[in-house]
Amino acid sequence: EIGVRLVGSEMCKETGSETIPLDSAQLAGDDGVVVGRAPELVHVCMESRQVSRRHVRLIEREGSLYFEDMGSSHGTALDGRQVPPFSPQPLTEGQFLRIAGFSYQLVRNG
Questions:
Q1: What does the alpha-carbon distance between residue 10 and residue 80 come to, in Å, rounded to a whole number?
Q2: Do 78 and 97 meet the contact criterion of CB atoms below 8 Å apart?
Q3: Average pLDDT in the chain
Q4: Is the model's pLDDT at 7 over the cut of 50?
Q5: Which residues contact 63 (CB under 8 A, 6 or more apart)?
Q6: Nearest C-alpha neighbor of 88 from the set 67, 106, 72, 70
Q7: What pLDDT is attached to residue 90?
Q8: Which of 105, 89, 85 is CA-nearest to residue 97?
Q9: Non-local CB neighbours of 47 within 8 Å, separated by 6+ positions
Q10: What is the pLDDT of residue 46?
Q11: Secondary structure of the chain in the HEC alphabet?
Q12: What is the pLDDT of residue 11?
């Protein structure tokens, strides 16, 4: 299982934890894991108007993790570089993913 660590945001989660656990089976599925602010449309919900309803998708293919901005209003960045929408980008351990104004670092569990 892969985990993404959240820095400086509140999640729509009961635990209020700063780590977003990502289910390996869900990551490998057709839809992957979608992050955004519309609970009815996403797997991980963020409470912020800066975050789009469907902001970013994380997906695992052939053992590698990728992310894709879903055409969000405030964008997604990797290590400070803005990425184009609908263009899957590799995400490796230790890199920082910024969703609107919120930063996450990819960490592997275990």
A1: 21
A2: yes
A3: 82
A4: no
A5: none
A6: 67
A7: 96
A8: 105
A9: 10, 11, 12, 37
A10: 87
A11: CEEEEEECCCECCCCCCCEEEECHHHHHCCCCEEEECCCCCCCEEECCCCCCCCCEEEEEECCEEEEEECCCCCCEEECCEECCCCCCEECCCCCEEEECCEEEEEEECC
A12: 45
pLDDT digits (tens, 9 = 90+) for 68-108: 999 999 999 999 999 999 999 999 888 888 888 888 888 77
Band (18; pLDDT cuts 50, 70, 90): low
| φ, ψ for residue 25, nearest 5 deg | -65, -40
Radius of gyration of the chain (CA): 12
CA separation (Å) from 76 to 15, 54, 91?
25, 12, 12
Q: Which residue has the tokens 């490998």?
A: 28
| HSE (side-chain half, CA atoms, 13 Å) at 68 | 13
